[in-house]
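Table S2 (continued). Query chain:
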Amino acid sequence: MTTDKVSIRWKLCAYFILFAISLLLMLWFMQTVLLDSIYAVYTKETMKAYSDTIAENIDNPELDSLLISISQENEISIYFLSEDGTIKSATERSTSVRLNKASKEMFDYWNLASENGGIYITEVESSGVFTDSGVYLDYDPGHFVGDVPGKSDYNSMIVAAEVASSSGEHSLLVLLSRIEPIASMGDVLQIILVVASLFAFAASIILAYISSKGLASPIKNLSDSAKSLAEGNYNVTFEGGGCREITGLSDTLNSAASKLQKTDKLRKELLANVSHDLRTPLTMIGGYGEMMRDIPGENNAENIQIIIDETKRLTKLVNDALDLSKLQSGNFNFRPVVFCITDEASDIVTQFKKLSGREERINFLSDCDVYVKADEVLVSEAIYNLVNNAVIHSGEDSFVTVRQSVADGKVCISVEDNGRGIPPELLDGIWERYQKGMGGGAGLGLAIVSTGIKMCSGTCGVESEPGKGSKFWIELPIYEH
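Corresponding output:
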């Protein structure tokens, strides 16, 4: 089975269990392999610290009480050996390391301590047993019958330190401890570790299942919803939960689904609108062409002009769709230049005056020449579309006023008419592509205006009231010479 076919729930569960097993293996390794070494190091450091403490209190008259306290608390046998070989003081806690008199080995430790800066520490391997009087006996379990203890090998830690009193008398301080508590506690620790391991393993499985389910369920729900979205169900709702990242992902997917739903709606509207807008001029071109072909006397200038006008209308619709596609896809060759927006707006108004034959009803008002740095083609097309919409939708008897104003380092070009206005419910989506306006059509002009002006770091807006007219405007930063 490949990993991409395994459920995320079981993957997370497996990761939790592997982590628990790794942790338990580490604990077993610490207890079975390293515990003896750790205990030996701890014993060594403890005995060295106590030898330093005793050396610091060598002249204290209550030294014996300190020796007894250290010996009883730590199961350490402590001896003071004089230069003549006499044991001056002894606190014996373990028969296995009991010494009744100074031996050659003791003096060897004295020499080793002198050679190592006054202190010598060693660990000695031992086996066998000692009597209460300290006599060593070799013990071999094979010499007995029945259920007898096994042969015990153990180590003894010896710390030999050379100390001197304030009177200048030198003595050898010897601390002896059998490293045996770890052996006696090993079985107990092992039982505890087995019980703890079983409990921890069972708890890890339960916790892994609960945690993986809590994390995997929201992801599975998101996956199922995403599949539904891919099949075209844009009304699907993504429900997050479990953690911040999953909630954030669900919010993002909900936003994407909403936008896809809106885009799908606009796509359907586009198909309907463009189909209608294309059908009308094509039908008229075809009809007038057949009429001029089949009916004598219909091949006249008036019919030819109708065909030309419908061809221009069809060409504009196609060009608008291509222009908007270039702008929104990022394929438009954006070329910002410095130009006089006042002259640009004035020329467009003059052009419409001549084409519409309404010279008295289309006016341009400005106080000064203003320069901007933007793409001249985009700005010109935006102004042209706004004026063209005002001329077409306001009626022949209405007035169209193009006004230039300056404020706060920005220039505003507004186009006002006193036509029929736009209902409030249409204003919110009027800049969207393929949004049909009051006059029908595919609604590409205002989408081109909005996209182009935004590319030029500008803004656009609209104010309208049904029955009183509309005011469209664009605003761009003024170029400072």
